[in-house]
Amino acid sequence: MKMDSMVNEVRGMKTMAMALVVMTGLGVGACAQTPVLSPATAESEQAQTAAPHATAPVDPFPPINLKNFTADSPTTAEVNAFLKQVWGYDDSRIWRVAAIRKTQAPGVVQVVVFTADKAHPEKLARSEFFITPDGKHAIAGGVVDFGATPFADRRALMQQEANGPAEGAAGKDLLMVLFVDLLNGRSKEGQEAANNLVKDIPQARLVVENLPADGSPYAFHTAAEGVCVRKVKGDSAFFAYSQEVYAKQKGLTAATLQATLDEAVEAAGGDAKSVNACSLTPETKANVEASIALAGKAGVESAPMLVVNGRVLPPVDVSYDALKRIVAYQGKLDGLTVNVQPTLSNLK
Q1: For position 190, what pLDDT does the model report?
Q2: With bands split at pLDDT 50, 70 and 90, how would you rate the model's confidence at 59?
Q3: I want to staple 303 with a disulfide (CB 3.0 to 4.6 A). Which of 123, 206, 211, 318 is the partner?
Q4: Cα–Cα distances in angstroms (integers) from residue 57 to residues 43, 93, 155, 337, in the given order
Q5: What is the value of pTM for the model shown?
């Protein structure tokens, strides 16, 4: 039985993390649309749409239609504050809120946004999402938090409860929490990206939490042995163990798994027999289950997922350059002066 048949590598667009990617990627694949107001004025109230002064920069977008603003909440300023959080890392993106209107569903509000690239403002894209009646969530292919600081609650959760193996900065001001399944090939790629982020952004602290595939005793056991390696030998030993597992995960079978884990434990400086015994204890199982529960609280449904100061990102499904820009931008949003090192030369 091949290990890839044991491991759930969920890539569904309906997970919360992928929904956030949808939000951060609205407007990708733009096509021609009816022109809208210039995103250059996104920080101001859009009701002020008088014809531009002769000396002002050319505004390619026509005035707003106030008939499309039928909902009292959220306000244009609140929507723009939210979009600045999720899109502000991209200096080339411009946008304009074109509608905030009631829907036939009581309390549900439709928001329409037009986006473009600064270099090609004539190529517009139309995107939409919906705000729930409580005003705290947006729906766009999935459910994400909405508001001027949509990631604050999850950031606090991670600072309080993410206590897995760590590397990088000592403080938690720029905290990256990576949820992994050590038998998941995509988690291997996610770990590589996260490791490079730590090197490229010195202020960042990386914490790894286990999220083994649902129903896989093999993934759970692999995570449990990692917990025990850390318990005996410390964080650096865990990272050594996980790297050995990642390196040998391809082609694993149920029959070869334990021998491979034993080798990984020994490579990390641990004793395979004692680590295996430790992995079977209720205390160790509770540790892994606590990591799984933390993922659930954060809305993370599959591995790998990277939570950066509360912002959920799939580290494998976006380019490394974009990932680094988003991490640095999130740090700046949270009041940090982020020093980004040049991208490592060994990255693709």
Answers
A1: 97
A2: low
A3: 211
A4: 16, 17, 39, 31
A5: 0.80
Domain range for residue 43? 27-139
Q: Kindly give, in sequence order, each residue whose CB lies less than 8 Å from that of residue 251, ignoring residues fewer than 6 positions away.
A: 2, 3
Rounded Cα–Cα distance for residues 315 and 341 (Å)? 19
- Residue 267 in any domain: the answer is yes
Quick one: how far is CA 266 from the chain centroid?
33
Both tokens assigned to 55: 């000396």
Domain assignment present for residue 15? The answer is no
- Same domain for 184 and 318, yes or no, is yes
Question: 95 with 196, same domain?
Answer: no
Asked if residue 316 belongs to a domain, the reply is yes
Cα angle: 230, vertex 235, 240; to 5 degrees: 85
**Distance (Å, whole) CA 150 – CA 81:** 10
CB 37 within 8 A of CB 61: yes
Q: Are residues 187 and 313 in the same domain?
A: yes
Count of structural domains, the chain: 2
Place of tokens 């693709």: 348
Q: What is the pLDDT of residues 12-50, one digit of tens each?
A: 233 333 444 434 433 332 222 333 333 333 334 443 333
pLDDT of the residue at 102: 96
C-beta neighbour count of 14 within 10 angstroms: 12
Contact predicate 340/324, CB 8 Å: yes
Q: Are 38 and 94 in contact (CB under 8 A)?
A: yes
Q: Omega into 74 within 30° of 0, i.e. cis? A: yes
> Shortest CA distance to 166 belongs to which of 202, 203, 209, 228?
209
Say yes or no: 161 and 221 in one domain.
yes
Contact 182, 222 (CB under 8 A): yes
Query: What percent of the chain is helix, strand and coil (3-state, nearest 5)?
Result: 40, 20, 40
Q: Which residue has the tokens 């090192």?
A: 341
Same domain? For 208 and 322 the reply is yes
End-to-end C-alpha distance for the chain, whole angstroms: 33
- Shared domain for 319 and 248, answered yes or no, is yes
Q: Is the pLDDT of residue 293 over 70?
A: yes
